[in-house]
Amino acid sequence: MAARITPILMPKWGMEMSEGTITQWRCSPGSKVDAGDELVDIETSKIVNTLAAHEAGLLRRVLAKEGETLAVGALLAIQADASVPENEIDEFIAEHNDGNSGKKKSVADNPQSPISESYSTVIQGAGAVAEIVASGDFDDGAVPASNIARRLARRYGVNLRNIQGSGRHGRISKIDLEKALGRAGRAIEHEHIHHAIGRKRSTDDDRLIPATPVARRLARELGINLRDCRPGGTRGRVGKADVEAARIQLSAIRGEISDGAIGGGSRQAIPARDFVEVELSGVRKTIAARLQGSKQNSPHFRVKMTADAGKLLDLKKALNENHAEAKISLNDLLVKACAMALQRVPELNIQFDGKLVRRFGRADIAVAVALEEGLIAPIVRSVDSKGIITISNEIRDLTTRAKLGLIKTEELQGGTFSVSNLGMLGVKEFDAIINPPHGAILAIGAAEEVAVVRNGTIAVATMMTLCLSCDHRVIDGALAARFMASLKRFIEDPAMMLS
Amino acid sequence: MTKNFDLMVVGSGPGGYAAAIRAAQLGFKTALIEKDELGGVCLNWGCIPTKALLRGAEVAHTLRTAKQFGFSLQGVEFDLAQLVEHSRQVSKKLNLGVAQMLKKNNVTVINGNACVSGKCELIVDCQGDQATYQTDHIIIATGARARTLPNLPSDNSLIWGASEAMMPNSLPGRVLIIGAGAIGVEFASLYSDLGSDVTLIEEQDRILPVEDEEISELLRQTFIDRNISVKTGSRLESAHIKSGEVTATLTDRRSGITQIVADRIIVAVGVTGNIEGLGLEKLGVNLERGFIKTDRFGATNVVGLYAVGDVAGPPWLAHKASYEAASCVNRIAGKGEDPLSQDNIPRCTYCRPQVASLGMAESAAIKKGYKVRVGRSGFKTNGKALGISDSEGLIKTIFDAGSGELLGAHMIGPEVTEQIQGFGIAKLLEATEAELMNSIFPHPTLSEAMHESVVNAIGKVNPS
């Protein structure tokens, strides 16, 4: 294998990443790249990041297409000197792909993939790095290794099971890890991952980034790292305009510069603007894509019903008064009621990817949580078989961690039904967009005291409006009505949940 | 008026401010409630000012022994008020530091008395102005206060607690200290070095009862050499004040009833948790012997309510509180599970000679069924210790003979409080005696004695 050929592989960003989708190539075949140059945007289930070149060279081949989903370690592109002949590159690619059938994990080719829990997929490696990356049993927690080696392995996505330790009792040291990475054509180095979306400021040394003298001095004065600037100047250098653009971009996102302040400083050249550009965050992008897909693909219909929440509120009060360890909300009880209704009408307790319906026994319910950055729906597992206090405390824990951005990917994946509640914000009723791969979502409005007519007389009752959105491809109106009737019964007679 | 936070902390000592800062760093909208000065007892009335005072005691000792180094001093005067002032200044400085750190981390500081009025709900009373707060998580870090003895007259000009003993306006001639735990022992060392005539009494049969027996005994001998009268197995029965003097009646296990006349009594008989007025009883919080009962991560039996530090029980140490605080907040945030391990908490007593330890005493290890390998080393042949003319002491290391695990390390001698952490890191990383032996200790240092102790343990095949 020619040492002059550098494979660009699907990186592993974080423990849970098992695959990534190519969002956009930032370089085309034939372009010259420097170390640190942005190569390609890759979207994971968590975030969109940009993969940067580790070393300077010529981008010879781009193998992964935009929109393609590939496993960690898959070959994305080939970087090599101009002197390397084409046939050598062909050989290199062939060698890589040998024995790597199933490397491509395209959504379209595999109807099960969107609903399979992707993190559990065993990844087939590609090439030398992949060999140490992820083959075999994924959990390497039992392999003896020093703390430093373990941490580095996590960062570089190396499975310690694939490394021979040289320490006492086969313990893997930092040096063993460095050697293994070296054999795979990589070295321990500073991270070159730029957060294209989060626009985090770089802190790495930028002295080697080509820039004009004016740009360099301006960047220093403004405290801007040249790595955060696009090289739009002559001979691929960062120019003065690039530094000023970076300043606006970085500051606007962080709210450092108010509308008026842009252009108000001593450095003229920055035009005054009456708006602030805010790029979509990773979370926002994911929400946008998923919900747009849902609205386009699933023919939604809605059924609406009101229910008397009086008994449920009494139950909530009694439970909270008698259990120090519980602070149950109306929403917690409604999640439980949904799980019970899903047991009665299992046709709604499903995942659907457009071709195949999976009907589940247990009810895993996604509970929508509103965050500043956007909506997130962590999943409470097996709600049907759990007690209400457990459910309530699990939802609180998930909400806490969701707010902090510390939720795990697997806690957001799967699920069989969703619940969204805006009642606590005073919303009377609303309808929601189905959260794929689910078949339905329940939107809950506020419980309010209203006058109702019962047996010809007017009475006061605490009523709430429930609206179920269903995917008509797999759920019909009558089925939705059956579910709603069952749900209403559980709400109005919560003792039935014990049956 | 209702306000909302993600997490609120009651009390701003080393447990409280550590919890608040960690929470804010993780992204919680955090508030910290303090009724008094920021920093708690540690910073204002405990660890910090006493260390400043003890430095004065050390200077006094240095001056007394200066002749050995060729200095003859005349006309040396001591201004007690200046020493007290120094200790107050140190506290003040750190107090400002805490305020700045909280501000830097965007923690909202609320002044007032907090009461947990319901699940995830707090009422803060600031001089009559009440505000109600809704919060997902409440961490109680209200600390503890010195226990008092009911059989003593309440005259805090003659009968002192720790805070009075920290701010003397004149040096008492005869001091009687009740209780020979870390606090009592430190005051004994301080007042003795400053020139008082000190009697230290302890109900149990040795001083520093939580330490290894050999360490307790060595400290007792040193104290006796320093003319501190040490009475173990002694109980204070009563005390009477008469014309500016206190006469204390003691029951001694050996010599029966005795009387001691002193100018001041310092009471150092442990602490009790600050659990009152917080609304805990009404909420049904489980309590245990005056402290809040929690799980390994500080969670109480009440939803969303946690307790860390002194108020959550012993050991009453600032660094234990800070660790518990971080561990509790991390657990709430689902970020790692590292509960406090009692065996990894170092204990330091800043008397002269200093005492520091970690893990199990030899007797405790044997009682637990371990086959132990014990190493001992003194400072008598340690070049650095001889050079500074401070060569009394012992370093005792206890290893599990089978696995090589460091079960305990017990040190008494010069600057041992600064050295114990070497054993702390080794213990956390599960180093065996082999790694400790292969570590290079710099020469000449006091820490070479640590190495000697480990080597001594290895030399023993299977003692005890």
Return the CATH architecture of the largest domain in chain A: 2-Layer Sandwich
- CATH homologous superfamily identity of the largest domain in chain B: FAD/NAD(P)-binding domain
Largest sheet of chain B, described in full?
Answer: 7 strands, mixed
Structural category of chain A: alpha+beta
The CATH homologous superfamily of the largest domain in chain A is called Chloramphenicol acetyltransferase-like domain
CATH class of the largest domain in chain A, named Alpha Beta
CATH fold type of the largest domain in chain B: FAD/NAD(P)-binding domain
The low-confidence parts of chain B are none
Helix percent band of chain B: 25-40%
Structurally, the number of domains of chain A stands at 3
CATH C-level class of the largest domain in chain B: Alpha Beta
Element string of chain A (H = helix, E = strand) = EEEEEEEEHHHHHHHEHHEEEEEEHEEEEH
Number of strands of chain A: 19
- Structural class of the secondary elements of chain B? alpha/beta
In percent terms, what proportion of residues of chain B is strand?
25-35%
> Radius of gyration of chain B over alpha carbons?
24 Å
**Mean pLDDT figure of chain B:** 94
Helix count from the secondary structure assignment of chain B = 14
Q: How far apart are the first and last residues' alpha carbons of chain B, in Å?
A: 67 Å
